[in-house]
Amino acid sequence: MAIVLHSSPLLWTRLAALVFSCVAFSVAVHGGRLYHGTGDWCIFCWAFSFAGTVLILLVELFGLQTRAPVSWKNFPITFACYAALLCLSASIIFPLYFLKGSTGPSEVRNYRIVSTVFSCLATIAYISEVSISKARPGEVAGYMATAPGLLKVCETFVACIIFVFISDPVLYDRHDALKYCMSVYCICFILSAAIILLCIGECTGCLPFPFARFLSAYALLAVVLYLSATIIWPIFNFDPKHGGTKQRPSGCSSTQGLCVWDKLMAVAVLTALNFLLYLADLIYSTRLVFVSA
After folding, report:
1. ∠ CA 174-180-186 to the nearest 5 degrees?
2. Can you give the pLDDT at residue 178?
3. What's the domain range around 171?
4. CA 97 to mean position of chain CA atoms
5. Of 101, 118, 137, which one is at a domain's C-terminal end?
6. Are residues 17 and 111 in the same domain?
7. How does it sit in the membrane (predicted)?
8. Which of 87, 112, 137 is the last residue of a domain?
9. Directed axis angle between helix 75-98 and helix 36-61, to 10°?
10. pLDDT exceeds 50 at position 270
11. Residue 170, strand partner residues
12. Among 69, 115, 139, 262, which is least packed, fewest CB within 10 Å?
């Protein structure tokens, strides 16, 4: 089996991301003294990114792209975008939980600082990979290399963060309007994830209707649904007329991590963010030209 190695900015960017993510989780595991689920999440972000990058490099090193069971026009950039978001989340969460107010030994703190720095470097490397790989104006490319494809990745990632905040503790069972918001998050997440899987699996041509028309119709539907959730969620959580609380409770200041009110506010902000992402998705989808599988 021939080994194919072509030096390029994309290759060096992937190697940099590989090294940075490896150092981040190796140092954290070796001397970071991590505890509870937050540390496990950060380790997962770095290790998952590292493992996926190794897989992509090996496939391209041995020229196995055509034998891979996925679309190689769509898979690497999709993974790079998810890896960038995962490392970004770890770069924010890790220092908040393990550096802010840290009173442990200085050696442990130094390990944690190193992990944070390399996590930020890995984030920059993966963002650079996405920037290098994405489709340029007028270029024929896979759907996931276009702006709407990358937006789909961001939309599903934001939805996953919403699910984390909204489920521990359960924040949507107090009123039917909040259950409606939860259904909006689930429906849009499932459809966006399905689109990503269809593109990666090169199954878009198997649909009984034009894929491009479905994308535009879905983007419009998602914008309408998220607009309603962006309005409804704050009303039924922060308006005193509906049992909400405008002011942040004083007890939240002494709570480790996020209190319930903080999580309600985080969901409201993330809902608005996803609305903007779906709106941008709709605008791009109306004028997108891409090659169907």
Report:
1. 115
2. 93
3. 146-292
4. 20
5. 137
6. yes
7. Multi-pass membrane protein
8. 137
9. 150
10. yes
11. 167
12. 69
pLDDT at 205 over 80: no
Preceding peptide of 169 cis, ω within 30°: yes
Cβ atoms of 161 and 270 closer than 8 Å: yes
Verify that 133 and 2 share a domain, yes or no. Answer: yes
pLDDT in tens, 13-25: 999 999 999 999 9
Same domain, 186 and 215: yes
Residues 7-32 have a mean pLDDT of: 91
